Amino acid sequence: MVTMDISKSNSKERLSLYNHLMKKMKFMEEDRIASFKNWQYSESDKCSVQKMAEAGFFYTGHGEDDDSATCFVCGKVLDGWESNDDPWEEHEKHAPNCRFVNTHLIQDDYSVEQLFNLAEVVVKAHLTKSFNKKLVSINNTADEVRDIIKNQSSY
Amino acid sequence: MPRTKINRNALSNKRLRENTADLEEILREYDIEVENSIQQLQSGYNKQMREITALFEELRSSCSDDILKTKIRDLKNVKDINELMVVEKMSNLNATLKDTCHKADEGYVTEAISNKSRITSGSENGSVCQKQGLELSQNISVIGSLRKTKTRRRSQSVSSIVQEKAYVTPGPRVMMTSSKGRTPLQQQNQQGTHTSRSKYRTPMSSALRQKAASVDRLNCITPRVNPNRPISLLRHARAGEAVFSVTGSPIVPSNICETTANVNIPVSDGVLSIRPQCIESGNLDPALMKKIDQKTLNHLLLLKKNLDIIMAGAGFKLNNH
């Protein structure tokens, strides 16, 4: 969950908070590369760690057999990778509306302004996701409680 | 002895009805509770979204265009990050001062401003403007009647005033244009042609004479308002413009941008406006200080740093004298 606690007065603390958030979201390519610790494909393969990270994926698998990778912008999770899968193509095929894949740019080709814009989109998307999650959980709990009350009334 | 028979079924039905009514009431109350908590969540979400928007807006505005357009690849090649930060700080200050010149000049072309604008017109990248901004910060003068008297120059020929008034284009455009873009008339002005005035001349015409600002001169206040009637239009005061409260109600000159705190330092030919992106705090009452939220304090800290930079420049100049 994204929490933007910007009330911290110390600019260093604020900076470290932003750094922490960005690392958590795997916003920078370096962080995405670092997430692939035991990736089964080598650098020469089409879906190498470098290319996966360039295409916006970071590793979210649990265990050795799980090769799930998630996009840091759209949150699309893909697994079942094969050595000749092109991460960009797969990304575009499965998540055509992703803001990142639509630009067809790797991180180095982004301008600072474009990166800021992307960061804004990513942070807002995370916030919206956590908001929707909470909303669903409130509604579910409310439905359960209503059922209990209704059952109570039928006795 | 017979007694009235109480129908047990009816009694239990009544109890059941009451019970059902109670539960419906509980259900209704619970629905309201749920609705409230959803609304709270929604408002918190909206607030956070606004904060994020403001944060990124601040981030973008705190970087110069050059930095914003730099590719990440090139940014990685910058060895000394401090170098970049210094450039960024300078360009920030530059932008502020450019903005200040723009605001100060808008529609209030005084002789002094015209002169400054003409000098700055020679600068192509605005660095001269920045230096002047530092100088200007020392020449803090009083706005209003005192400023008007200060700008009166006895040796000034009438014709040159007329020329300045008539032909000098507003400041920001002049400032932004290169030396090639100047009109012949401006170049003539710059050469310092001093046309002698006629021996017999009428005193300064009423149009040119600058009246001292005073509360008594209500005809100077635009738009003219009748305090007893509702006002149909709202106009914010511009930078450097005097604001009068006709009936004595408190006023805050939040003229430039309501969402940004700013410090307006009156200088000899306008107002030096230093504005970080932050909300307005304006009162130094200790009791009110506690009410200032942390975000504003952060912005004030930024403001203080900016002021320190300016004062450091001013102090350097003072020491030289």
UniProtKB/TrEMBL annotation, chain A:
InterPro entries: Baculoviral_IAP (IPR051190), BIR_rpt (IPR001370). GO terms for molecular function: metal ion binding. Pfam families: BIR (PF00653). Keywords: Metal-binding, Zinc. PROSITE patterns: BIR_REPEAT_2. It comes from the Eukaryota. This is CLUMA_CG004343, isoform A. The lineage of its organism: Eukaryota, Metazoa, Ecdysozoa, Arthropoda, Hexapoda.
TrEMBL record, chain B:
Its main location: nucleus. The keyword rRNA-binding does not apply. Keywords: Cell cycle, Cell division, Centromere, Chromosome, Mitosis, Nucleus. Residues 194-311 form the Borealin C-terminal domain. Residues 176-195 have a biased composition (Polar residues). One of its GO terms (biological process) is mitotic sister chromatid segregation. Residues 172-204 are annotated as: Disordered. Coiled coil: none annotated. It holds the Pfam family Borealin. Signal peptide: none annotated. It is found in: Chromosome, Centromere; Nucleus. GO terms for cellular component: chromosome passenger complex; chromosome, centromeric region; nucleus; spindle midzone. Belongs to the borealin family. This is CLUMA_CG009319, isoform A. It comes from Clunio marinus. The lineage of its organism: Eukaryota, Metazoa, Ecdysozoa, Arthropoda, Hexapoda.
